[in-house]
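Design a sequence for this backbone.
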């Protein structure tokens, strides 16, 4: 990437390849030379100046291309479209749910896209163009971008599903207090991903329903396929969220049962020793007239009496099915 924010400037040859151009050629470009794709880092000052003053975009759409925060959407303006899409963050050290956004303005012969953080789906398309195996038209490029961004979500969602399955196995095998934090983390990731994928589904469905001259029937078919795949991923996230919630409830119930069981045992022990404590306390007072104080067998008789009380209590508890 240059300091001016221009990441890629490519003229498509219509055969799957492209040639790189610079600022001078960008300013002299005409549609007859081939479709032009400009990809910028919107945080660069020169990029912001060019989009506002030289791109030919209306002020409203220029601001949308440079906005810090965007919500996935599709806005059609005559034969052009403004797209805001999000992809899973695959950058090293980043969380997948911290999604990367890209804004795209597409016309019949020109595509302008902006981002802040690297989006690997764009890098894949550039690599395919360098090998002359990339998109041939602007519509083909947009469909390829949407399809690649959707496909890259699969590994992340499958990884979350595997984590939930492992937690379910742990619960079945006996559970562990240590997995509560992991369950909460999974639910949070699923909710965050779904939060962005749901509006993206709507954006892609709207794009596939609009009749635009630069989208062919094949492009529409591929868009619908990508949209269907995105719907399936959203359903998978809903399933992950529900499974994690059930797993968390099962863990809470199991911990509650364990606590109740322990409290029950302590209650039974307390019930057994309550009369014993009362009797020993009563006979331990230092007053005359206590029975057995003058007999050498007094303690033994009292001990047998206590044992008898315990046996009677145990039999009574068993009869009542208290344990």
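Sequence:
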């Amino acid at each position: 990437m240059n300091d001016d924010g221009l990441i890629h400037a490519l003229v498509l040859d219509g055969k799957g390849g492209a040639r790189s151009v610079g600022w001078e050629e960008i300013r002299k470009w005409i549609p007859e030379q081939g479709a032009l794709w400009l990809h910028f880092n919107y945080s660069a000052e020169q990029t912001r100046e060019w989009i506002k003053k030289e791109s030919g975009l209306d002020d409203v759409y220029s601001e949308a291309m440079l906005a810090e925060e965007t919500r996935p959407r599709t806005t059609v303006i005559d034969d052009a479209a403004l797209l805001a899409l999000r992809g899973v963050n695959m950058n090293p050290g980043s969380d997948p749910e911290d999604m990367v956004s890209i804004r795209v303005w597409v016309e019949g012969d020109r595509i302008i896209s902006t981002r802040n953080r690297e989006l690997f789906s764009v890098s894949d398309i550039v690599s395919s163009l360098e090998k002359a195996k990339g998109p041939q038209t602007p519509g083909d490029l947009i469909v390829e971008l949407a399809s690649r961004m959707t496909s890259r979500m699969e590994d992340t969602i499958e990884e979350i599903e595997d984590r939930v399955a492992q937690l379910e196995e742990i619960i079945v095998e006996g559970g562990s207090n240590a997995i509560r934090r992991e369950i909460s983390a999974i639910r949070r990731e699923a909710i965050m991903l779904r939060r962005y994928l749901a509006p993206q589904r709507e954006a892609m469905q709207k794009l596939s329903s609009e009749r635009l001259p630069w989208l062919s029937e094949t492009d529409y078919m591929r868009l619908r396929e990508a949209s269907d795949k995105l719907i399936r991923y959203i359903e998978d996230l809903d399933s992950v969220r529900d499974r994690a919630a059930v797993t968390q409830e099962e863990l809470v119930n199991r911990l509650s049962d364990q606590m109740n069981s322990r409290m029950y045992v302590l209650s039974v022990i307390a019930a057994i020793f309550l009369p014993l404590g009362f009797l020993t306390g009563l006979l331990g007072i230092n007053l005359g007239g206590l029975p057995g104080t003058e007999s050498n067998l007094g303690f033994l008789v009292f001990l047998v009496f206590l044992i008898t009380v315990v046996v009677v209590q145990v039999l009574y508890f068993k009869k009542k099915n208290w344990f």
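The chain has a mean pLDDT of 85.
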